[in-house]
Amino acid sequence: MIINEPEWPPYYMTDNSKPGFAKELLSIILTNLNYDFEFQLLPIARGNFYMKNGNADISIFSYKKQRSEFLHYGKIPIFTIKIKFVSRIDANFQINKISDISPLRFEFVRGISYTENILQHANASDKNIYTSVILKNALKKIINHRSDLTAASEHTLNDEILKLNAYKELKIHKFVVTAKAYYLTVSKKSTLLIKPLNFLNEIDKEIIKLKLNGTYQKLENKYHLLEINK
Questions:
Q1: What is the DSSP string of 25-77?
Q2: Which pLDDT band, with edges at 50, 70 and 90, does 110 fall under?
Q3: Which of 6, 11, 115, 219 is the most buried (most CB within 10 A)?
Q4: Which segment of 16-30, 110-124, 140-154 scores lowest on mean pLDDT?
Q5: Can you say how many angstroms the Cα of residue 145 is from the centroid of all Cα atoms in its chain?
Q6: Prediction pTM value
Q7: Which of 71, 75, 78, 61 has the alpha carbon at shortest distance from 24?
Q8: How many CB atoms lie within 10 A of CB 141?
Q9: Between the CA atoms of 230, 156, 159 and 135, what dihedral angle is there, to the nearest 10 degrees?
Q10: Per-residue pLDDT tens for 173-198?
Q11: Range with the poorest average pLDDT among 72-76, 125-129, 184-188
Q12: Helix residue spans in 54-153 (DSSP H)
């Protein structure tokens, strides 16, 4: 089967020595269940298209009603993310509500889907123009006082800050914009998974098993998923 693999640290990573939390977890689960599988690195839009037409068999998605038209969802989340803001550690502002970002210079990063409330309050002349191509560049601009803050998954922010060795320059704010659970999904047009609901039920049981035996928690530690703002 083909697994849609977006580039999304620390869940999916191109570094072979650390392939990513989701990629390692799925590899363990599918190997335990004796399935043949192959990861295919795809841009986000193409990966979504492949899942719609059955060129890819499985992927990880948050739940949206419109996606359920072409996807079968598992019941147990693979992981849950929290969207948070990041700024310089010496910033003279606090974020306690979305409207607090209105007077600040918000850095938009291509490929990140911002919530509607962020788009409404972010200080940008055109919400369709992204000011940074990748998150690392956005964080460097914030460090260099060229922007004030940006937002992304706390785990992704943590991963990028670790790579930049910038915990003396940047902080992740405690305020949570939104939280989303991500599930394993099967394309409704998959020709390989004839009984997708049975397959997803197997996956759910395996996730529970890996949490009970500590494997899940070891992967969380490996990818620093529990080290936010320490």
A1: HHHHHHHHTT---EEEE--HHHHHHHHHHTSS-EEEEE--TTGGGTEEE-SS-
A2: confident
A3: 11
A4: 110-124
A5: 26
A6: 0.87
A7: 78
A8: 17
A9: -120
A10: 999 999 999 999 999 999 999 999 99
A11: 125-129
A12: 116-121, 135-143
pLDDT value at position 230?
43
CA nearest neighbour of 123 among 147, 87, 95, 96: 147
Q: What is the pLDDT of residues 92-107, one digit of tens each?
A: 999 999 999 999 999 9
How many beta carbons lie within 10 A of that of residue 181, not counting itself?
12
Compute the distance between CA of residue 101 and CA of residue 83 in angstroms, rounded to an integer: 14
Query: In terms of C-beta density within 10 A (0-12 exposed, 13-18 middle, 19 or more buried), how is residue 84 classed?
Result: buried
Alpha-helical regions (H) of 67-212: 116-121, 135-143, 154-164, 196-212
What distance in Å separates the CA atoms of residue 145 and residue 87, rounded to the nearest whole number? Answer: 10
Q: Residue 27 has which token pair? A: 């590899």
How many Cβ atoms from other residues are within 10 Å of residue 24's Cβ?
19
Question: Both tokens of residue 70?
Answer: 């072409």
Q: What is the pLDDT of residue 128?
A: 54
